[in-house]
Amino acid sequence: MPATSTEQMTTLAGTTVIVHPLVLLSVTDHHSRVAARTKKRVVGVLLGQDNGKTINVANSFAVPFEEDEKDPKTWFLDHNFIEGMFGMFKKVNGKRLIGTTAKERMIGWYHTGPKLRSSDQEINDLFKKYISRPIMVIVDVRQETVGIPTDCYFAVEEIKDDGTATVKTFLHVPSAIEAEEAEEIGVEHLLRDIKDSTTTTLTTRLTQQLASLRGLRSRLGEIQGYLQQVAKGEQPINHSLLYSLQDALNLLPDLEEPATTRSFRTTTNDELLVVYLSSLVRSVVALHNLVDNKGSNAGWEREEAGEAGEPEAKSEQKKANGAPVTGEDKKKEEADKGL
């Protein structure tokens, strides 16, 4: 592996990896078939297009893989299977019509980590027999995963500033989940089938925001841990990574600036005023409904009392007029009284 200069690492760090939903579905299915309810990971090949600044991961296939849990350096990857499967994919891609999606080539490999392993460098060196610069994508298939479930890396041999021996390491590059029109239609149909009718739009939005905040907290924790390791000398200094962190921190507002503090306070007060007015409106509406309900109940009680008093009033009226009260009138009066 040729040594990578700081300029080359900066160029690699600017590469964006686009992962399609079909790949995530295939990796999840692979893991559920082979390593469900175990701590094993699965390995496969990624297919797509490498356009320099953008790597499009459009497809994948699983590869037989075994490793010793006690000795990570002991592992097996079926080379013949990779060559046979890729040969079939090339035949399929060769028959595509003009104007369709570009041909899919072998661009890297994936595993379900969910973190980097000590044998990843050796496996990546193996894939260099087929690809000049393989991309490694770690797909986290755990249900409790928040945020984007993919982490993408390039293997590099970093040159030390102090002139010491180079070190093999992995350079993290940004990734995104995107889909073509046909994939979007399929995903929409899947989501429509599993959609919970009892879940409201507000609940869904709050759940998504909570998941985003959890993902942000997890990423901030990883950044904090890395910086602490660098400060203790446990990790080498990566200037490009530190520059990226500094750029991100420069975007944050200065909370010690009076104008910024005043703006935050004004915005918070406006939002709290809206919440307060909403609470007042809800209280007024609740009181209005209570008064209406009480009035309706009183009207029903008066109507029931009027209907119950009609037989007695008729009997008294007959007596006052001197008309005899018959037995049928008495039976009807007793029946109305519930006797």
TrEMBL record:
GO molecular function: metallopeptidase activity
Region listing for Disordered, in residue ranges: 295-339
Gene Ontology BP term (one): proteasome-mediated ubiquitin-dependent protein catabolic process
GO cellular component, one term: proteasome regulatory particle, lid subcomplex
UniProt keyword list: Proteasome
CDD domains listed in its UniProt record: MPN_RPN7_8 (cd08062)
Domain MPN: 17-159
UniProt feature, compositional bias: Basic and acidic residues: 300-319, 327-339
Similarity comment: Belongs to the peptidase M67A family.
Purpose: Acts as a regulatory subunit of the 26S proteasome which is involved in the ATP-dependent degradation of ubiquitinated proteins.
Record protein name field: Mov34-domain-containing protein
Organism whose genome encodes this protein: Calocera viscosa (strain TUFC12733)
